[in-house]
Amino acid sequence: MNTYDPLYHANCKGQPLPSTYWATQVKQSVVIRNPEESTKYDTIVIGGGFTGLLTAYYLATLYDQRVCVLEANQVGFGASARNAGFALPTTGRLSPLSMVKQWGEDIASQVYQEYQSGVSRIKELIRTHNIDCDQQEYGYLKIAHSKQAMMSLFDSFQYAKKVFSDEHLSFIDVEELRANYINMPNTYGAIRNQHGFGLNPLKLLYTYKRMAQQAGVDIFEQSLAERIGKVGTDHIVDVNSIQLKAKNLLITANAYNNRDFHSTISKKYLPILSSILVTRPLSKDELASTGLRTNQVMMDTRTLKYYYRLLPDNRLLFGGRGAVYGKDQDKIKYQRHLTHAMHSGFPALKSLTADHYWHGYIAATLDDHPHIYFKDNIGYAIGYCGAGVAFSAQASLRLAQMASSNKTPSLPIYRKPAPSMPFARFSRLGQLAYYHYAQLKDSLF
């Protein structure tokens, strides 16, 4: 099996590490540890990505817990090493106005601040631990792809400035955008958030792994959590014929969770494929022809968004939605579609193809926002909607606080379980219909 789909396959055991551009920049670990004997822990964490490793780190360093992390493949298999490396001050898919309509201004402002705190926390981790992750200049540009989109984007900007008093936001008109940031077709202005930046996510992830190990966390790779049960107050997890026990069980694999691993997360999310390509390094003339004048991260306002940035070695990274069904993810037509979108945005590069191309799953929840939830000694973090690089740092701290009986903010993202998705196995049909609708909408508006 080489086309893992969380909706249809029981687990992702035995899958190779993804062949990404990030992997070419990092020496990958070949040392694999497995459980060797039955052991009792305070907490068992399922999933060795950003959230799992950082939660374990916080549990060990802040709360003196004995912790292990179980990873079915190797650290770097899942979304944490497949993403575009955008550290953004947001997550989920709710606009500021939608947040206020749903929760009221006070709660929405607090949730908004939690999202901002994700960026502050990752910046502090990079500084404190001297993490070499190719951090680029600050700035996240949300670029309007039409005049109508610019009007909506400007309204959202004014609303966020007024209600959330966000001083990181600034408006960039089309002349300033094209003169100082990017000059490409179908750009009509942008909102800039100075509280965001790009990085190499695999370098960051491997540093999180080292931090957790140095804190005394046992990290077991190629160690699928095959079965779980409960004896008294202890969770029992079977791994490679070894039984591990713990008071707390935390499920942090997000979109890469096993399909039927536990009823707590069953049918709580929709895994959505996103694809990324990276070109060869651009020449000086090619770079000038693109209109790119910054290394800040960028995303457009299309319903099916495209996102892009110039990497430190002058390669162009360009990403967008991939196949609907996991079994189709390697079909050449999806790479061609993304390449065509890159050529449309950067017509001077119409002869340029990808040096690297890969895809990975993000997790979307039914109510379009993340849930970090803990009850009866079992918890999970889920639903970053593709923006988990930064917010996973904040979510990890909150999940560690919950698992240590420490107080966390009384907010819906922390107090309410993720709603179940009806007919989860058939949601791909709805996703396919939505993609067709979105493509039509993006062409018209």
TrEMBL record:
Domain FAD dependent oxidoreductase, by residue range, is 42-401
Task: Recall the GO molecular function terms of this protein's record.
Answer: oxidoreductase activity
Entry keyword annotation includes Transit peptide: no
Which Pfam family is one of those matched by this entry?
DAO
This protein is called FAD dependent oxidoreductase domain-containing protein
Sorted alphabetically, the Gene Ontology cellular component annotations on this record are: cytoplasm
The parts of the chain that form a coiled coil are none
Species: Pseudoalteromonas luteoviolacea CPMOR-1
Cite the PANTHER family for this sequence.
Answer: FAD DEPENDENT OXIDOREDUCTASE DOMAIN-CONTAINING PROTEIN, SARCOSINE DEHYDROGENASE-RELATED
Task: Report the leader peptide range.
Answer: none
